[in-house]
Amino acid sequence: MALVDAIHRFTFEELAIRGALVQLQGVLKQTSEHAQYPADVQSLLGQALCASALMSSTIKYDGSLTLQVQGQGALRLLLAQSTNQYGLRGMARFDDPLPADASFAQLTGQGRTLINIQANKQARPWQGVIDTNYPSVAAMIQAYFVQSEQLDTQLTLFANETACFGLLLQKLPDENSDDADGWDRLTQLAQTLTEDEALSLPAAEIINRLFHEETVRIYEPKPASFSCNNCGERVEAMLRQVDRAELDQLVADTGKVEVTCEFCAKTFSYDAVDLAKVCDPTTVSASSRVQ
Ligand SMILES: [Zn+2]
């Protein structure tokens, strides 16, 4: 059955615990269709996409959250980004084939993960860091919330080649609850979910099945979509970092510089005139004034 790409937020009102559930299918396909990742990389990418959307759902902001796993092992880079409107994109770099049956910690070596939150109106992003020495992406993000945010968190992630799922439960700091066992009960219930259920049942049915004895308030689901709309700007910013002589040589040899966006596979092509506009805009406007 086709899953709907969406985020479902909910709260347990008597318990000061919040939850969010994400299922992605079309977004995962669009994120990876040009890259042809092997199944295990595709699964990691799906988990990272779900994690970035769920983390984004826990903060009120206008901007984007990026989860960037910088590995020192066979998994070199795993990147997923979600805007606050759940516009998602992601990519991976890896040694093919990845070692079979390796844990996340083994795949990433002595790596680290950066969590970047870029608010649209702020120049500097907020950045958090955690090492990658965890058995899974979910365990790493869970530890991040506990260590950096002091928020008890349980994260469940499932992914296969065509679909991915995430469920986040988080205990809110303000605990006036008279049900001391509430957190233990909910996290145990969440652990009863199977991968098969998570990747096939509709979200509302999963929430009802798991928590039917609790008072759950479910908010209107928010659609998630694949989004790579500022890649032209990013490519140009990247070109400005490259040695200009190298770019000029490339134009001399081939007539153009071509850069393909790793997220959406769109190709941007620059000839000598385009390059001048991108790399030294002040010179161009000065010389056009002289003419
Ligand atoms: Zn792009």
Q: Which fold name fills CATH's third level, the topology of the largest domain?
A: Hsp33 domain
Distance between the termini: 64 Å
CATH architecture descriptor of the largest domain: 3-Layer(bab) Sandwich
Classify the oligomer: single chain
Write out the distinct hetero groups bound to the structure. zinc ion
Strand fraction:
25-35%
Main sheet specs: 6 strands, antiparallel
Rg of Cα set = 22 Å
Quick one: CATH class of the largest domain? Answer: Alpha Beta
Count structural domains: 2
Percent helix, as a range, is: 25-40%
Task: Estimate the mean pLDDT confidence.
Answer: 92
- Helix count from the secondary structure assignment: 11
Shape: elongated
Number of strand segments = 14
Give the structural class: alpha+beta
Could you list the spans in which at least 5 consecutive residues all have pLDDT below 50? 284-291
- Give the helices and strands as they follow along the chain: EEHHEEEHEEHEEHHHEEEHHEEHH
CATH homolog superfamily of the largest domain: Hsp33 domain
